[in-house]
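Subject: Sanity check before I submit

Could someone independently write out the structure tokens for this chain? I want to compare against mine line by line before I put it in a report. The sequence has 396 residues.
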Amino acid sequence: MKVSFNKEKIYFWLLGISAAIIPLPGNNFSSLSLILLTTFWLLSGDYQEKTQNLKVNKLNLFFISIPFLLAVLGLIYTDNLAYGIRKIQMLLPFFLYPLILLSMKPNPFIQRFVLYCFSFGTLLASLMGIGKAFYYRLNHLGDYFYYARFAELVDKHTTYFSLFIVLSFLFLLNEVLNRKLKGYYFFPVAIFWLLTLYVVSARISIVALAIGSLFLLLLNLKTRLKWILILLPILGIGIFALPNFQKRFELNQTEIGQLSDKEFRTLHWKSVIETIQHSPILIGSGTGSDRDFLYDTYRNYHLTSAYELEYNAHNQYLEIVLDYGLIGLLIFLFMLAFFSYSFLRNKNYFELIAIGVFIIYFCTESVFQRYDGAVTFSLLISVCIISNTIKKTHLI
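---
Independent answer below. Compare away.
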């Protein structure tokens, strides 16, 4: 008996599973899904067609792979080769996802399918986290409705979990504004996600969500009502006045007393800048290089938690300079500018807002220092590139 497989459907579902798994607890299944997708890609399809598609998309492939390529080059002069190799493994999605996606025949449905799967995974993970928090509260096992405690339940750093929610929220809002999704499906989910963001208490998420929602409303609403609705994202900043967010502004305990959050952050970044000045300014210290000087600087400024927990730069731009210098930063910024301009030129506004969300998060988080950040950016921006390419060539 001959069994036939629809390769395109398998390819779609492997991509969808990869997207849905990202927000769920742990990283093992996310890595496994990428391995399965890569294996399927290697064993199926016309290699000549794949090669031709990659030639057409070679510029997009190069730019989206820049974080991975910088890491490979930085391995040449790192002083910590073992960690550098582990970091390259973590950044592999920047090469594999675009390689797979840009080598396949462009499909106008792939972006929405992947983003719906990602949003479903985000909703499921949120429900699991809130459900566990209620269970522990009702059984007097502790209060997990706040920041780090909630992170224990979802097994994700709260900043990254908030990133998943913001991207999913903006995608579904865009679907509603473009009449591809009914509002009565969106609004209950949106309210639930806003409540979850309050629990997560990642301040940058409110800024990114407010700016992203504001631009979506401005770009998509044609009625006078929009001038009332656009006030909602602005008023959303008022969430900072609520108790959970006020806790995030509490004083930080150090060896020499208490520091305000602003003072702590200022000294933190000052330590990073001093470390950059101590390193080769043009090329940095290399991929995964030792951060002993940085940790010693934290200690000199008495930032107890920073040196005990070995904080990274908490800023993706500074993180790039630490490893790859000013040259690496210029290349990285050129990558962001290239895609931003390409999305704007083709009037792909959601795609533009999506990369804008990452640009905002980069200001307070070293997003690519964790697998969650690397896999989210590489997969979602890759499908945005496909949508952009299709629109550019008038395939839809």
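---
OP: Matches mine. For the report I'm noting this point. Residues 7-248+315-392 form one domain.
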